[in-house]
Amino acid sequence: MSVLKCDFRVVGPIQTNCYFLYREDTGECLIIDPGYEADKIEAYIQKKQLKVTGILLTHGHFDHITEADEVRKKYQVKIYASAAEEKLMADPQMNVSVMMGDSVSIKADVLLQDGQELELLGETMRCILTPGHTSGGMCFYFPGACMLFSGDTLFQESVGRTDFPTGSSRELIRSIREKLFQLPDAVRVFPGHGLMTTIKDEKMLNPYAVE
Asked: Among 18, 97, 134, 200, which one is most buried in terms of CB atoms within 10 A?
């Protein structure tokens, strides 16, 4: 039985979900998409007395990556992200940070491939490349915990926008139907914005992705 627990804080002007995935027994923790408000992120870590062991980025848009470098330096850990998203994360025009009057450029320490599996927090994590919202967007699936971190690919009864650089509505729907909807119905989906959902509910209720 999985010992992983998940909590989150909503950060930044786009109301991005920053997740804390951690082990109850050891306090080891992964931070997923530290987009903004590093002080809020650090306050949560301190309050829960967690030990940060890594940072996962679902994709390279500014609202998911802006504070990643500061958090990496604070805890001296590695950033994991899709290899296919490397260029977008590094380019302020492509990651849309210039739209916010900023210039964000992030380089991941570990570049991940579609289907790659890693042992993190003592459990297996599977990387699922889901192009559409961006060409290198990646979902992180923890089968033992029945959890999927979907970034801006799949939301509760909605999907991510595709009008930013490298976006494609056709690719997005294909990614959801051919990859995410193949996961077990019971998988809990933790999206980049909004409320948690499940694969079962989205297969039945998502007006964008159901056939």
From this structure: 134
CA angle, 38 then 12 then 198, to 5°: 100
DSSP labels, 144-202: TTTEEEEETTEETTEE----STT--HHHHHHHHHHTGGGS-TT-EEEESSS--EEHHHH
End-to-end CA distance of the chain: give it in Å, rounded.
34
Would you say 149 and 54 are in contact if contact means Cβ atoms under 8 Å apart?
no
Query: CA of 160: how far to CAs of 16, 111, 172, 197, 208, in Å?
Result: 13, 23, 8, 15, 10
Q: What is the pLDDT of residue 208?
A: 85
CA distances from 27 to 22, 84, 147, 200 (A): 6, 31, 18, 30
With a cut of 80, say whether residue 103 has pLDDT above it.
yes
Predicted confidence band of residue 133 (pLDDT cuts 50, 70, 90): very high
DSSP 16-66: EEEEEEEETTT-EEEEE---S-HHHHHHHHHHHT-EEEEEE-S---HHHHT
**The pTM is what?**
0.97
